[in-house]
Design brief:
- About 45% of the residues lie in helices and about 10% in strands.
- By secondary structure, it is an alpha/beta fold.
- The radius of gyration is 23 Å and the shape is globular.
- It starts with a helix and ends with a helix.
Length: about 450
Amino acid sequence: MARILLVLLLVALGAPLYFIFLKSPPPMPELDLEEWWGPEQLRLKQDTSLKPFQVKFSEAMIKDLKERLKAHRPYVPPLEGVGFEYGFNSKQMSSWIKYWAEEYPFAEREKVFNKYPQFKTNIQGLDIHFIRVKPEVPSGVETVPLLLLHGWPGSVREFDAAIPLLTAVSKDRDFAVELIIPSLPGYGFSSAAVRPGLGPDKMAVVLRNLMNRLGFKKYYVQGGDWGALITSNIATFFPQEVLGYHTNMAFSSTTRVFLLQLFGSIYPPLVVSNDLVHRMYPMSKIYANLMEEMGYMHLQATKPDTIGVALTDSPSGLLAYILEKFSTWTKPGNKYLPDGGLGSSFTKEQLIDNLMMYWTTNCITTSMRLYAEASNKRYFALKIDEIPTPVPTWIVQAKNEIAFTPAWMMSFKYPNLVNETILDDGGHFLAMELPQEFSRNVLSALVAFRAHAQSKRSDL
């Protein structure tokens, strides 16, 4: 019995040590740079040109939308004394429905949607929609490309207020930024795959190929939510091309990081500074919040097409489903407010603009399929989070992001972690909520990446 207990003790102590210190990273996945995701009959006649694109809200679509909004059944009253604890408060629905059906300025917003140049091009069978903004620069100022990726339930509309800030020419910088902002495949005006398998790793290849199509062999990448994972994958797969990676959603799903977080629960200062302990511990509180907020993820990772039927058919259902995320993911305390606190961070126009990206394109089902493509044995087996990415990296951690991972833990994945910004404000939709802060941080990262590259050249 003593020997058995000794063996069990050694295993209990040895397994964590192995995962933390000794386990070798997995091999780099084999990439198919030409994998076809569109209809098979179009493979031999692919049009690879860049086509200008304009958003058009047709009269037929607007008429149908308004009729659906006005023809809804009576909503079930909320429980007494609750805000958004049970989800979107149905007492708030009437004002939102009235605004969308009667007050939202469709023609005016269509012009706003078309404020910046947009294009489509076919990559691997997918028509990829993207915004491309080139700054006008004086002589001596270099233009550098930045790929900017959104997530779910966001869209390219998240970046509207940040675009002029990011592309502004400043006498304090010797460069200006050219933005390439695609709608992810299956989102907005980008077409969706017709067969299974288009996970974050495959999207990384598609969007890297977009950058190459546009003539960029070297570029920077930035992302939040799914955009964070996809741009991270681009940096992992193509480190010779990516000059720097910035993200406002730093996370790691490795066993090593989980074990370190677990050890920290015994004595938090082992892993995180005292002023940030509340962002990680107690773990019971953090995981309880994750359980409360992640029900949608399980549904979308297993049966996206089922919930897609309801959200495709009902614009009021789509509104409640998506705006609830903009409420609690922006500030957790918003769930206790009758209106979900939506008006404190966003305008109604901003939020309905984002809904229009899903409604007018009928893409809610295809957008949710990304969860299923990232939550399966194929993708998990790649273990991309365990592959170190040498690309210079800068992370910004908003106060109300759904999870927090200290920079020193993130450096296992990003050994060239240049900097970390800890914000005392902001939530999941950082570019939309705090465009000034977001843009400042991204530009600071680009300055640091360029300085880092210069120092490496000097060392040679």
